[in-house]
UniProtKB/TrEMBL annotation:
It comes from the Bacteria. Keywords: Kinase, Transferase. InterPro entries: Kinase-like_dom_sf, Prot_kinase_dom. GO terms for molecular function: ATP binding; protein kinase activity. The keyword Kinase applies. This is 3-deoxy-D-manno-octulosonic acid kinase.
């Protein structure tokens, strides 16, 4: 569906009015600057879109380039949003739990912008901030284990998996988010497991999270 400069690709039965509501919210995703572990400071949430509660995720530049150009990308082929959408659709048929993908929005041919549409997952915390008891944390890692095994079996590397990119639902289910730039087709499971453990440990140290998060994650991965 085309709305002004935006193209919306979605399996949802969107009405023109609902599509307009989505595109009108896009500027807000680039205006926010809240820094959060996990990068969700710029998401917008809209209820009542085709009967769903939709989260809109922008793809923004960080680092030094982000200070000059935060919103535009130069590239050909599938946009980052289209790639993440396709991966989330694939993962929806596996043991990996992610926010259900609803589509994506794109704008521009040379200077490109894009956004991912997902179902909002009700939660109060990520694993980085969840006030879990020892038994609750053990239960959560037990539910995370089959998801990580599935990623290893599929050869998928979530390049930025850390406690801030795992949201904890009200039912205590770990939901993996932010698969942007994920790598696929990695056959060496041991090497892939080590990549996950190292990235996780770096985040725990950098953000001064409880060391128990690293120990439990490493122990879990060693058993897969």
């Amino acid at each position: 569906m085309r709305i002004g400069p935006y193209t919306i690709t979605s399996p949802l039965p969107l009405t023109p009015a609902e599509a307009s509501i989505l595109t009108e919210a896009l500027p807000l995703t680039t205006m926010q600057s809240t820094a959060t572990l996990g990068g969700r400071g710029s998401l917008q949430f809209i209820d009542g879109i085709a009967g769903k509660h939709v989260a809109i995720k922008p793809y923004l530049r960080g680092g030094l380039m982000g200070k000059v150009n935060r919103v535009y990308y130069v590239g050909r082929g599938k946009s980052r949003a289209a790639q993440e959408y396709a991966l989330l659709k694939r993962l929806s048929e596996t043991a990996v739990t992610t926010p259900p993908p609803f589509g994506y929005i794109e704008s521009g041919l040379l200077l490109r912008r894009c956004w991912l549409l997902m179902e909002t997952v009700p939660h109060d915390h990520t694993l980085a901030s969840a006030p879990l008891t020892e038994s609750q944390q053990e239960a959560l890692f037990a539910r995370l284990a089959p998801q990580m095994k599935a990623l290893l079996d599929l050869g998928i590397h979530h390049v930025d998996l850390h406690p801030g990119n795992i949201i904890v639902t009200h039912e205590g289910l770990p939901v993996l988010i932010d698969f942007d730039k994920a790598r696929i087709g990695i056959e060496d499971k041991k090497a892939l497991s080590e990549l996950y453990v190292k990235r996780w440990a770096r985040a725990v140290i950098k953000h001064r999270l409880p060391e128990s998060l690293s120990k439990q994650f490493a122990s879990m991965m060693a058993k897969l």
